[in-house]
Specification:
Bug_dom1; five-stranded mixed sheet; 12 helices; 2 domains; Tripartite tricarboxylate transporter substrate-binding protein; D-Maltodextrin-Binding Protein, domain 2; 11 strands; BUG; globular; signal; alpha/beta
Length: 319
């Protein structure tokens, strides 16, 4: 083969190869959201992806893949080509507690590389506006007097909202019926329609309904009241200081994703979270932006490992 043909062959081969990770991203990135539109993870994902897209110069396209407490989506991302163009926004349910809940889960913690923590979320218990109990004390008394008759909706077994329900029930010492949905938004819609008695949710998705009087907030698990729902007392104020919990959302990529792509995604996440637009939006939602230290992949990895161990002890082995 003469020199011209060799050069032509090399050029054709180079043209058929994917762009180098150093050039990442050269096209839009898909961010898989494990729940239906309108829930906490979805709301935070939209805010984060919009700002990250501006930093990267490429759109981040949110794709909602609900089902099985968010594990359907994470299983899909675990199998994706590890090139940085498909990532997931996960939470304590999908990336920690799920391993103690689902006996046949289709992924492991080692199937992902953390990109970084995006936000921390504040758990809220809310009830329908005509529920007979008007505060936490009377709600607990009502639930104890009617074991199994009160029902609380959540975003699916294994979701962060499911964990809110479980820890709340344990702290309050009550027996209620849990109703599983494909996301927080469908559960909240049914609460506003009076189809369920209450929901276990996060301030990011339920604050608006509380503000507009569509549902009644009972309690938040936070050290202080939320600016967005100032009339809702903290667990300590309401007489249940044992209920202490905080949720989180982090970004993950499939194992094997080039480090250059992880670095660029992490840098974009940092700039996105630091932006005035995202800081204001998070404050409006009642969510807490991650700190600089929390946004590192290493810190996110340590958090996930600690949460996996925590919920293995709390929930026990998969049934």
């Amino acid at each position: 083969m003469n020199l011209v043909l060799r050069l032509a062959a090399v050029a054709m081969l180079a043209g058929s190869l994917p762009a180098a990770a150093d050039d990442f991203p050269t096209r839009p990135v898909t961010m898989v959201v494990p729940f239906a539109a309108g829930g906490t993870s979805d709301v935070i994902a939209r805010v984060v992806s919009e700002q990250m897209g501006q930093v990267l110069g490429q759109r981040l396209i949110n794709e909602n893949v609900p089902g099985a407490g968010g594990t359907t989506a994470l299983a899909r991302v675990a199998r994706a080509v590890p090139d940085g163009y498909m990532i997931a926004i996960g939470n304590v349910g999908t990336n920690a507690a799920a391993y103690a809940i689902y006996p046949e889960i289709k992924y492991t913690a080692d199937d992902f590389v953390p990109i970084g923590l995006a936000a921390k979320t504040v758990p809220v218990i809310a009830v329908r506006k005509d529920f007979p109990a008007t505060d936490l004390k009377s709600f607990i008394a009502h639930a104890k007097a009617n074991p199994g008759k009160v029902n609380l909706g959540h975003a699916g077994v294994g979701s962060s909202n499911y964990l809110i329900c479980k820890t709340f029930m344990a702290a309050a010492g009550i027996d209620v019926t849990l109703v599983s949905y494909r996301g927080a938004a469908p559960a909240l819609n049914d609460l506003m329609g009076g189809q369920v008695d209450g929901v276990c949710d996060a301030a990011a998705s339920v604050s608006g309904a509380i503000q507009n009087g569509l549902v009644r907030g009972l309690v938040v698990s936070a050290p202080h009241r939320m600016r967005t729902i100032p009339d809702v007392p903290t667990a300590a104020e309401a007489g249940l200081p044992e209920w202490q919990q905080q949720g989180w959302n982090a970004l993950f990529a499939p194992k094997g994703t080039p480090q250059a792509a992880i670095d660029k995604l992490n840098a974009a996440l940092r700039k996105a979270v630091a932006s005035d637009a995202l800081q204001k939006r998070m404050d409006d939602l009642g969510s807490i932006p991650a700190t600089e230290e929390e946004m590192s992949p290493a810190a996110a990895g340590r958090l996930v490992a600690a949460e996996i161990e925590k919920y293995r002890k709390v929930l026990g082995p998969p049934q």
